[in-house]
Structures are given as structure tokens and as C-alpha cells.
Amino acid sequence: MDALIIAAGYGSRLAALSPSKPLTPVCGVPIIELSIRQAVLAGVTRVVVVTGHEADRLERFLAELSLRLAIPIVPVRLTDWSTPNGHSVIAGATRCDGNYLLMMADHLFDVEILARLMAESRPDCGLTLAIDRRLDNPLIDPEDATWVETDDRGMIRAIGKTIRTYDAVDCGAFLVTPELAPAIRAAIASGKAGSLSEGVQALAAYDRAATLDIEDAWWIDIDDPHYHALAEETALWHFAQALAEVGKPPVI
Questions:
Q1: How far, in whole angstroms, is CA 7 from its chain's centroid?
Q2: In this model, does residue 240 exceed pLDDT 70?
Q3: Contacts of 158 (CB under 8 A, 6+ apart)
Q4: pTM
């Protein structure tokens, strides 16, 4: 299965640490390398990365990483990387075959989350979103979180940063079918800006957006220096195999 990683944005809240958010090191390894290594451990065999800000530098790194990991890593450059993240999905989806794992470049996940998502092949759904129902999880930034409201079957009713009623947080990892990119295009055609959440909401309107409760699994959105520090404190316990393979065994 392919993985599509969105890595085009500027990442202004992390700019004090690094000019490129995907190349910001966590435990001495760039975030995007950890993401790709986790995806490979989960069973991904090919990775598509949508680039934009600092694209030349990032693409050089990805070419070198592809050789080290011996897997195809395909960059897709977004000309206007200031657009909402749904535009990155549309661009990257053109290079993905069938269903694919969709990940945000500034999120890190336990392999378990990604492996469980990859096994969630449901013909009745256009996508499955990993959600965290632990609304008091200290690794969640409430000021930046994307909230999710689900029904009693776990299907998405509403998603967004400003919805008033919610029972979970969007973890930033999805199993996606070819239905998502057209849903985002339809949202844009209706006058919306083209965010990923708008595409998810469009599928939810047709009861096509499912969720996967990650339960007690670990994940983090590294969006500013505070959460970067939390990632460095906690990732050591969750990336033992990935860090060992890159020659940086965790200190426990």
C-alpha cells in the first residue's frame, strides 16, 4: 500500500527551531524520516510526499532517504503551498494507486495506529480516520486540534477546528479511498477553500466517513516548540525500532 504524506506547508509556529518543519529533528532524526520509517514498519511499500515550502531541500533529503530505505519515495511539488491542505491531497492522490495511508508530516504515530488503519478496508466507507477519544490527553494542543463528532456507530457527523459539539480529536492519520480527492474538489466547487476537513465533511454527509478509535496508543502533533519538546520526551519509548535502524538507539 502507498502512503501519502502532506509536507507542503510553512509551519510558522515551529520556524524558531527549523526552517523546514518536516526536517526538524526529533531525537536526532527528521520528523519526516521517523514518519516514513513508521509507515514502512506498518507495511507501506511506497511513499508519496507533497512538498512546497523548502521543497528543494526536502526533496534532496527524500531522494537520499529513498536510497537508504530501499523504497520508492515520490515527491509531488505543490506550486502554491499556501493553499489549504486539501489541495495537497488532490495533488498527491494522482500518484497513489487504490487505497492509501494519508498522514500529516508534523504528526508522529505508534506503528500500531498505522497498521490498524491499513487493515480497515471497508467497502461502505470512503475513508477511515484515526481518532483519540481521550480529550484530556496532555499531548493534544486544544488550541490547534481538529475536533470530531461521531454517532453511535463511530461514523463522522462533523469535523473541524471550531465545531461546538465533539467527542474525539482527529489524529491526522487516515485510510483513504479514491473517493476523498473528488470530495475535496466538490467542496472547492461549492465555494469552500479546499481543506482536508471539508472533504471529510463532504463524505460524512453521505455516511461515508468512518473512524478508528486508537484507544491508548501514542501519537503527537508537533506544531510548536512546546509540543516538539514533548515529542522528544515521549518518542523515545515509541520509536525503538525506527531509532535503532537509523543508528540512534533510544536512551531508556
A1: 9
A2: no
A3: 148, 149, 165, 166, 201, 204
A4: 0.93
Query: Average pLDDT for residues 36-43, to the nearest whole number?
Result: 96
Number of neighbours of residue 117 by Cβ within 10 angstroms: 26
Residue 185: CB atoms within 10 A of its CB come to: 17
The mean pLDDT of 136-153, rounded to a whole number, is: 94
Closest CA to 98 of 50, 51, 45, 62: 45
Task: Give residue 214's identity as a one-letter amino acid code.
Answer: I
Residue 106 φ/ψ, nearest 5 degrees: -100, 15
Delineate the domains of the chain, giving CATH numbers in brackets. 2-219 (3.90.550.10)
Q: What is the rounded CA–CA span in Å between residue 188 and residue 192? A: 5
Distance CA 142, CA 161 (A): 9
Cα–Cα distance measured from residue 251 to residue 73, given in angstroms and rounded to the nearest whole number? 29
Stated length of the chain = 252
235 contacts 251 by C-beta, under 8 angstroms: no
The three cell numbers of residue 226 are 512546546
Is 201 in a helix, a strand, or coil? helix
What SS3 state is found at 54?
strand
Identify whether the C-beta of residue 146 lies closer than 8 Å to the C-beta of residue 168: no
| Residues 155-211 pLDDT 10s | 999 999 999 999 999 999 999 999 999 999 999 999 999 999 999 999 999 999 999
